[in-house]
Each structure stands twice: as structure tokens, then as C-alpha cells.
Amino acid sequence: MKKSKLLLGDEALALAACDAGVKAFYGYPGTPSTEIFEAGEKYIEKTNDGRVAEWAANEKVAYEFALGTSYAGFRTVVTMKHVGLNVAFDAFVNSAITGVQGGLVVAVADDPSMHSSQNEQDTRVLADFAHIPLLEPATPQEVYDFTIQAFELSERLKLPVVLRLVTRLAHSRGEVYTAEKRLAPTSVGIPSEEEKNNWVLIPAIARGRYRDLRDKLPNIIDAAAKYNSFSANGRLKEGVLMAGMGIAYFEQYLSDNDIDPKKYNQLKIGAYPVDVQLLKDFVEKCDTIYVFEEDYPYLEDMIIPYAEGKCKVHGRRDGILAIDGELNLSTVRTVLAGKKVEGKVDDDLLAQISDLIEIRPPKLCDGCGHSDAYEAITKALKNIGVDDPRIFGDIGCYTLGVQPPFNAINTCVEMGASLSMAFGAAMAGMSPAVGVIGDSTFFHSGMPTLLSAAKSNLNLNLIIMDNAIVGMTGQQVPVAADIAPTLAKATGFEEDQVHVFIPLPKKTNENIEKLEKIFKEDKPSLIVFKRKCIQAMRRKLYTKPEKAEV
């Protein structure tokens, strides 16, 4: 008899990967995907049967780790959040052309409503662009089942397969029935003699491989078809087109209100690409179609051309739902009652929450070294006559420096952008130009700017907030520590251009004086504010206990 467990969506994915014989987990932390890797890592530590879990410097590197593992014939998972796929996009797109050997599952967690992200882009669009199949589960049980099937599909099609989660599913807990037996990681072998050059994307080979990929599209659509179900029972010819959490909310609505499911024609999408004939057939059965999907109006845009002149389509495009924000049960209920959702789709949910819980904006932890660093930076700039300083910021805990009382950063675009943007501003004449980045983010994508900075004659100040931890995503261990000053010197920075400060209140005046001097110099500098994360210390995550800094 199968056993059931109570699992988060992320945990269900990790457990399914282990049960399917995965050899390796790779990834870069990013909410809401982080728990996939962390759960996989725990399973691996517990079983100790030759599997590996490795955080990478960034998502591109993680993807390439996974691609290499696949080439060696093993099943592998690479995890990231939706914006992380942008970082991995070069490898992602080209892996569709090389193909894979061992099953490769790309676990991407989207974040509608931007709970902890800088945008709410839709991974379905990027998978479509790359011609890579995508599975979209609606429950933790489907996450488990789809993950195992994704490995099988990947090896059958010889393509990566994306598994798309969204925040609510990634962090929702549900009962999951698991396999009775866990498969050991086993290689299917490296590419054969006939296939060995398929992975060499020189133009002469890539042209043929790309044609093969295009020729494979009908097979991909056929493979996706079994995840998409069509029931034409709607007595009133009302139809619901839905995917992922849209399915979950719709079924909850029916259950809560004891509504006969046969009231509606239903088209449930669990995999992409979608056969357009399915959409055409659905339109023929409906007078009205409601579309419930997270993020972009992706399915809605697909069905609108076929519905024109035949039936009405209600969703984000006609304004019955807002064009942005996260779905919830309340909005689904409102729309099916024939009403328009006023405001963003998550405004109603936030109003309900605010009745129960006081809304607390995020802030730096009490005692965080970033606070002392920001105080020193902003005061030093003002003391040298920069009355209205503009500081380029990045992604991480220190982004919270944008808020009062610090008001210390003025940009946050994407991982690593702070240093490059400061460089660009310095080239345009801003002096001093200041960019602030965390240690993990520096190794993720800020490091290349160091190479250009060293050779410049600009008043460019690259500041690393080094707490030796990936703080915001739950205190993961970064890929490197304590080497930024050494790297700077290796790229051409002189000894007097590299500075290490301790951001403590008792050192603030000393740090301000030193910064004033540095900011006045017409040459690049690397400034490291080095102090461990107070929350990680409380959790005893550092191998060596903190000493003088607390």
C-alpha cells in the first residue's frame, strides 16, 4: 500500500525526484523555489546513496551543472525562481537544440503578485520560446506525479522538461501519496557514437539540430495532450479554461458551494504546448468562457482569436480580472458570479488578511550590520558635499536600505546590476559613483564588473556587504567567502584601493572618516563591509562562532 505524507509543493517535487532516481540537485536560492533544493539536500543526506546537491554561483552555472550530469546519463533537477531562468536563459534555449541524455527537469517557481520578486513574468512564455515542454501541476500530489513523469518524458523526447510551480503551490501543504520504492540513480550512458556531436553547436551542426527540434514539435504536443482534459457538460454553455492554481481555486469554489461540476464546460491545462484544436473544440461548446490562470493571460491570448464572433471570453484582457496580481478563491467566486473584480486580484485577499493581521513592511533586522554600513555610507557622502546622493543597489537583504530611515539605495533592477550601473554612471560623469551589492550576489553576477573597474580611472566605489551567507532566502552557504579583496587585487586593484570595514556602531565614525577620503579619490575602489548575519548567528549556521563583532 502506498504511504502518504503531508508535503509542501516544493518538498513533493524534491521527494519525487529522489524516488525517480535523480542523481543531482543544482540551483541558486530564490523564493519561492528554494525549498525544492533544501528538501532534496535533506533527502540525500539521509539516504547517503551517492546522490549530490550543490548550490551554484548562479542559475546559469547551475543549469550547466545539470546539463553535464544529463550528458553523463543521469537524471538531474535544476531549481530556480522565474527571474533566475533569465540568468540561465542562454543554456536553457540551447539545451533544447543539443537535447539531453539523462532526464533533465527544470523546476521553476513563478511569483505572481511579486511577493519577493522584481517582476511577475510567466515561465510558460519562455518555455514556448525555447520549444521546451512544460508541465503545470495544480496540487502537491500532481507536483509529485508530474515530476516523476517529467523525467520519463525528458528521456523519451530527449529534451529538458520544465515543471512550473507558482508561489501558492510551492508553499502549500497537502497529502501526497508516494511511490512504494525509490529508484537508485543509474546512468543511461553517454551519447552514442552517432549522437556524440549533437552537443557541439557550431553552425553546421546547430542548423540540423534546430531543424530536428522543429520537426519534433508535433511529438511534443502529442506528449502534452494527456495532461489536458476537456469535459463538455455545461448545460448553460458556460465554459472555464484553467491551469495550475486556477484549477485548484475553481474546484474549491465548486466544493464550497456544493455546485454540480456539470454546470460548466471545463478545459483543464496541465501541460504545454497546447494543441490549438483543443481550444477550437472548446470554443464550439461555449457561449461564454472564463479563464483562470496565474501570471500572463497566456491561454486567454491563445483562445481569443478562435472565440471571435462565437463566444465571449472573460479574463484579464477584458478587465473582469486585473491584468496583474495573483488569483485567489475570492476572485474566482466573484468572476463566476458575473461581477468584475475591483482593483488588483490580490487586493481582496490583502484586505481579508489585514482584518486579521497587522501589515508589517519588511525591514532590516535589529542589530544588522547593513544598518551601520548604510549609515556610514550616506553620512560620508553628505559630509563631502553630496547633498542628495544616488546609490546603485542590488537584490538581497540590503535592498531594504531603500526604506527610511536609511533611504540609502536608489536602484534595484536585477542580480548584479548595481556595480555595472555604477560603472556606467561613473563613465557618464557621476562622481563619486557608488554601487552596493551583497557577497552572494557579487559572486552570482557582480564579479565581471570588477574586471572592467580595475582598468578604469573612474571615481567608482564598489561596495560589498559581506555577511558570508545568502541571507534573504533563508541563510544558505554562498559558493565562496573572504576572497573578494584577493580577487580585486588579482584583477589590478592596488593595495590602497581595497578596503575592509567592520560595520559596528562603535566603528561608525571611523568608517565615515575613511569613506570620506575614499569617495574623494579619482580612482576605483573596492570596499567590503564584513560582518556576519545576526539571524544566521542565532541559528548557529556558521561553523566558527562569531567573536569580536557581537
Explain how this protein is built.
Mean pLDDT is 93; it is low at 545-550. Helix content is 41%, strand content 16%. The protein has helices spanning 9-19, 34-47, 59-71, 82-87, 89-98, 123-130, 140-157, 167-170, 203-225, 245-256, 276-284, 298-307, 329-336, 347-356, 369-383, 417-427, 439-454, 484-491, 508-519, 534-538, and strands at residues 4-8, 24-27, 52-55, 76-81, 104-110, 134-135, 161-166, 173-177, 229-231, 238-243, 264-269, 271-272, 288-292, 312-314, 433-438, 460-466, 498-501, 525-530. Strand 2 (24-27), helix 2 (34-47) and strand 3 form a beta-alpha-beta unit. Helix 3 (59-71) runs parallel beside helix 5 (89-98), helix 11 (276-284) crosses helix 12 (298-307) and helix 17 packs parallel to helix 18.
Distinctive features:
single chain; 550 residues; alpha/beta; seven-stranded mixed sheet; five-stranded mixed sheet; 20 helices; 18 strands; 16% strand; globular; disordered C terminus
Offer a quick outline of the entry.
By secondary structure, this protein is of the alpha/beta class.
Tell me the layout of helices and strands:
Blueprint: E1 4-8, H1 9-19, E2 24-27, H2 34-47, E3 52-55, H3 59-71, E4 76-81, H4 82-87, H5 89-98, E5 104-110, H6 123-130, E6 134-135, H7 140-157, E7 161-166, H8 167-170, E8 173-177, H9 203-225, E9 229-231, E10 238-243, H10 245-256, E11 264-269, E12 271-272, H11 276-284, E13 288-292, H12 298-307, E14 312-314, H13 329-336, H14 347-356, H15 369-383, H16 417-427, E15 433-438, H17 439-454, E16 460-466, H18 484-491, E17 498-501, H19 508-519, E18 525-530, H20 534-538
Parallel strand pairs: 2-3, 2-4, 4-5, 5-7, 6-7, 10-11, 10-13, 13-14, 15-16, 16-18, 17-18
Antiparallel strand pairs: 1-8, 6-12, 9-11
Helix pairs in contact: 1-2, 1-7, 3-5, 11-12, 15-19, 16-17, 17-18
